[in-house]
Amino acid sequence: MSKIVELLKLIVIPKSMAKVRLMSVLVSLFIFVLSAYLLALPYGYQAAKMVEQYRDNYNFLALQEIPDDDAINQIFVEINNLKCFATPEFTLSCSGLNKGEVFKRDISFVVAGEKYPIPITKHIHFFIENNGDEKSTINPVTDFDVESFPYQDNVEHYFVVLTHRYLYFQAQLRGLSKLEKTHNDVMLLEMSSTLFYEGYIPEFNLQSASPATDGHLMGTYIINQIILGLAAYAKSTAFINTLLICVLFPFLMILIFWLFFRRNGRLTQFREYFNIAALSSVVPFLITFAVSWFFQPILNAYIFIFSIYYLFILYRINNIQTDL
User: Fold this and answer.
1) Is residue 324 assigned to a domain?
2) I want to staple 292 with a disulfide (CB 3.0 to 4.6 A). Which of 42, 166, 230, 286 is the partner?
3) What is the 3-state secondary structure (H, E, C) of the chain?
4) 122 and 227 inside one domain
5) Per DSSP, what are the bridge partners of residue 125?
6) What distances in angstroms separate CA 143 from CA 115, 152, 156, 175, one per listed residue?
């Protein structure tokens, strides 16, 4: 029990912190990095939850709106016959497609109803390319723009491209955002996403048990895979973001406070400021870690909370009258 009390003193009582100000900087560095790693858990969790909301985004609706139509299902039968799936080597295998061949199909349908007072024609362009390790022959920048598909009122275009290494999804034509067009009061904004099978959608599989009857659901499956991939990407970048929050930004604050206080304060060495900062970061980290599971914006306030608490600790240490 006494050890726990002593440990608590090290993170909340300035005089106790000052006693270990000359400890190894490796210990302090470990505290900072561990904080970044642990804070990435709620950060990634919240980021993945936010990605799930994309499912209801206007640009993600088209693939989920593909109607149950015999002609459309027949196209998905053709896609199913290609037998495309991501291999354990994270590449797309399509045994029904010759090497170098590009499979192209267009699906068109009209959506109407309460959400669409003015009916909208949606075109979904599918490209499946068996390019192996060769560079893709499909260039979204020039192939899927307003010059290749001139804008028409109440007509929208979506693109799904499967290559050997990745899935590419584009909603709306490139250059359309500049035209400031709206459909049923919704501003049309182009967006695109490239997701590699490796790390993001390793279990991607376009094979269905009964494509003749439920082939239209393949569009929803693709959206689900995109959501999973974007969530995986969000989680993978969480640690990078928390490294900035928990390590880089605090280091800058340490440098500033050291330059400001070293001439007149009790602490003079950069090492002392660094070690005190590491101990001072524990309380702000614990608060941020607990709250961020249900309120992500507090992550943006971490550096402010840390700076205020660290400044308070430095003030108290520099005003200690007895020997450190």
Assistant:
1) no
2) 42
3) CHHHHHHHHHHHCHHHHHHCCCCCHHHHHHHHHHHHHHHHHHHHHHHHHHHHHHHHCHHHHHHHCCCCCHHHHHHHHHHHHCCEEECCCCCEEECCCCCCCEEEEEEEEEECCCCCCCCEEEEEEEEEECCCCCCCCCCHHHHCECCCCCCCCCEEEEEEEECCCEEEEEECCECHHHHCCEECCEECCCEEEEEECCCCCCCCECCCCCHHHHHHHHHHHHHHHHHHHHHHHHHHHHHHHHHHHHHHHHHHHHHHHHHHHCCCCCCCCHHHHHHHHHHHCHHHHHHHHHHHCCCCCHHHHHHHHHHHHHHHHHHHHHCCCCCC
4) yes
5) 106, 159
6) 30, 17, 15, 12
* Tally of domains in the chain: 2
Has residue 188 got a pLDDT over 90? yes
Residues 182 and 247 in one domain: no
Whether residues 70 and 175 fall in one domain: yes
Residues 216 and 257 in one domain: no
Pair 65, 151 in one domain = yes
My answer on whether 92 and 194 are in the same domain is yes
Task: Look up the domain containing 270 and give its range.
Answer: 2-48+235-318
Residues 62-98 have pLDDT tens digits of 999 999 999 999 999 999 999 999 999 989 999 988 8
* Residues 253 and 154 both lie in one domain: no
**Chosen domain end from 234, 253, 284:** 234
Q: Mind listing the pLDDT tens digit for each residue in 92-150?
A: 999 988 888 899 999 999 999 999 999 999 999 999 998 877 788 888 888 899 999 99
Interatomic CA distance for residues 175 and 183, integer angstroms = 16
What average pLDDT does range 31-48 have in this prediction? 89
